[in-house]
């Protein structure tokens, strides 16, 4: 067994994984602990103290195993507020939380108007950290003065963890560019967003390039701090122009690399410009589309209706005509759904749990293909497509994804891709230029498996959302 050199810490929405690697990036040890989320209606929160204790506990285990260098990847789209002592002032409001969508009408009218404009409009979407912060401060106005006086901080969970470990307000630039408060082209604060949302003049973090990160804490050098999707792209070595990565995890994410090119001014509805990699001399841009809570809906089926057996869920997926299952547990960005919308359409006598699970698998694949088509219609077909994430354990789902996308995909056999990317970047910052060994399973499309029209899924989801709004108004 080789000497451990580096570790990757993957802080996900559902779990936190520490993966320790030898100098060939083979896994020596992996320790995973659950990351509990309170889910009540539109609320999806985590306790910052509990999260931090788990992170420190895993880092301590890494030190005991002889690790000196570590990289950290965190889930994105969150919000947490803390004071100068590091004490929490809010829960972690995760990306699955959609209270900001429900309370969107409380935003200043000028901000809601700006949300309809091209380019800057995404900064005012319900999913942005900026809007999450505004709606939270409306309910907790006393925090505005504290933030204005710079006696507290508000940012994604990566900023909170970095501050708690080092006492320095540091954040990942690629994650920060998705907050709605940072210009993804210049990485400068968007003060116009603060003004339109009538937010306090908050403190902004230092955002070092991936080659500049270095926090010394607990006997470790933290040499990378980046978003989970960016880390996965690095782990898969999917940064060159035309490469696409699809993550099938708690949420479904599609990231398409554009190389050094900026995505342009007018992006298709629901897509975001994204930084996949940034250092002092290089920046890789891309576009991202995602379906919020999509994987969570599949996980719910597995845990509650199939006793936690992915094999049982897998065996229920087939090419028989299923009911249409609209799999938006928390709403979606593409298609834009501002409220939690889900439903099952077309149940018939003879259908059972397996039939509905089959419909769910087809539904998520059809919805994913809708996002894929949005991207490829503007930017062209990808040169290759990597698929990773916990739900790749469902082999028949992988087949459906390839079939609904109508193209070959490469499914990673490694489950540690995100931790691997964080560790790779940490090693790279020390001058260790190594390429990990990743095996892939090729999946070719099978047109006979396609039974659900993606437009049908979108049309029914929007119809249900419209009816929901009508009932609320009544």
Q: What is the CA-atom radius of gyration, in angstroms?
A: 21 Å
Q: Describe the strand arrangement of the main beta sheet, using strand numbers.
A: 14-15-13-12-18-19-20
In helices, the fraction of residues equals 25-40%
Q: What is the total tally of β strands?
A: 20
The major sheet is characterized as: 7 strands, mixed
CATH fold-level topology of the domain at 4-226: Nucleotidyltransferase, domain 5
Give a structural overview:
The chain has a domain at 4-226: Nucleotidyltransferase, domain 5 (2-Layer Sandwich). Helices cover 34% and strands 23% of the residues. The protein has helices spanning 48-64, 99-102, 109-114, 129-139, 142-148, 157-166, 173-176, 191-197, 228-235, 294-305, 310-315, 353-379, 395-405, 417-428, 454-473, and strands at 4-11, 15-22, 27-34, 38-40, 43-46, 69-74, 80-83, 92-93, 152-155, 215-217, 220-227, 243-248, 252-259, 272-278, 283-291, 324-326, 343-345, 384-388, 409-412, 440-443. Strands 14-15-13-12-18-19-20 form a seven-stranded mixed beta sheet. Strands 3-2-1-6-11-10 form a six-stranded mixed beta sheet. β14 (272-278) and β15 form a beta hairpin. α10 (294-305) packs antiparallel against α12 (353-379) and α12 (353-379) packs across α15. The radius of gyration is 21 Å and the shape is globular. The termini are far apart.
Question: What's a quick, concise take on this entry?
Answer:
This protein is an alpha+beta fold and 474 residues long.
């Amino acid at each position: 067994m080789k000497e451990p050199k580096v570790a990757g810490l993957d802080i996900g929405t559902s779990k936190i994984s520490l993966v320790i690697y030898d100098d060939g990036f083979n896994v020596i040890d992996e320790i995973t602990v659950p990351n509990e989320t309170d889910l009540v209606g539109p609320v999806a929160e985590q306790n910052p103290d509990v999260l931090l204790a788990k992170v420190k506990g895993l880092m301590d285990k890494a030190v005991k195993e002889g690790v000196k260098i570590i990289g950290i990847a965190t889930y994105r789209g969150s919000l947490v507020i803390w004071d100068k002592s590091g004490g929490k002032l809010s829960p972690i409001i995760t990306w699955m939380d959609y209270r900001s969508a429900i309370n969107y009408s409380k935003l200043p009218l000028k901000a809601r108007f700006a949300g309809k404009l091209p380019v800057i409009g995404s900064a005012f979407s319900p999913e942005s950290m900026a809007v999450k912060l505004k709606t939270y401060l409306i309910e907790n106005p006393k925090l505005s003065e504290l933030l204005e006086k710079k006696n507290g901080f508000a940012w994604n969970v990566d900023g909170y963890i970095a501050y708690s470990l080092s006492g320095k307000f540091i954040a990942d630039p690629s994650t920060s560019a998705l907050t709605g408060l940072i210009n993804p082209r210049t990485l400068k604060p968007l003060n116009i967003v603060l003004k339109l949302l009538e937010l306090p003049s908050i403190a902004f973090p230092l955002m070092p390039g991936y080659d500049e990160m270095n926090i010394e804490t607990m006997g470790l050098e933290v040499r990378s701090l980046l978003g989970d999707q960016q880390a996965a792209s690095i782990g898969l070595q999917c940064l060159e122009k035309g490469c696409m990565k699809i993550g099938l995890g708690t949420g479904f994410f599609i990231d398409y690399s554009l190389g050094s090119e900026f995505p342009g001014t007018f992006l298709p509805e629901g897509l975001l410009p994204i930084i996949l990699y940034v250092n002092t001399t290089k920046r890789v841009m891309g576009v991202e589309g995602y379906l919020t809570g999509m994987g969570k809906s599949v996980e719910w089926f597995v845990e509650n209706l199939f006793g936690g057996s992915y094999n049982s869920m897998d065996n229920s997926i087939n090419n028989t005509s299923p009911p249409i299952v609209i799999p938006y547990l928390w709403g979606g960005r593409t298609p834009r759904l501002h409220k939690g919308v889900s439903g099952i359409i077309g149940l018939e006598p003879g259908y059972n749990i397996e039939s509905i699970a089959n419909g769910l698998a087809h539904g998520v694949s059809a919805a994913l293909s809708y996002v894929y088509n949005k991207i490829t219609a503007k930017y062209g077909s990808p040169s290759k497509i990597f698929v990773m994430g916990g739900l790749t354990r469902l082999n028949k789902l992988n087949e459906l994804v390839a079939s609904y996308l109508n193209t070959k995909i490469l499914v990673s056999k490694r489950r540690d891709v995100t931790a691997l990317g964080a560790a790779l970047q940490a090693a790279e910052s020390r001058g260790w230029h190594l390429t990990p060994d990743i095996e892939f399973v090729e999946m070719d499309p099978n047109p006979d498996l396609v039974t659900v029209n993606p437009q049908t899924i979108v049309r029914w989801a929007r119809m249900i959302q419209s009816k929901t709004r009508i009932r609320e108004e009544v």
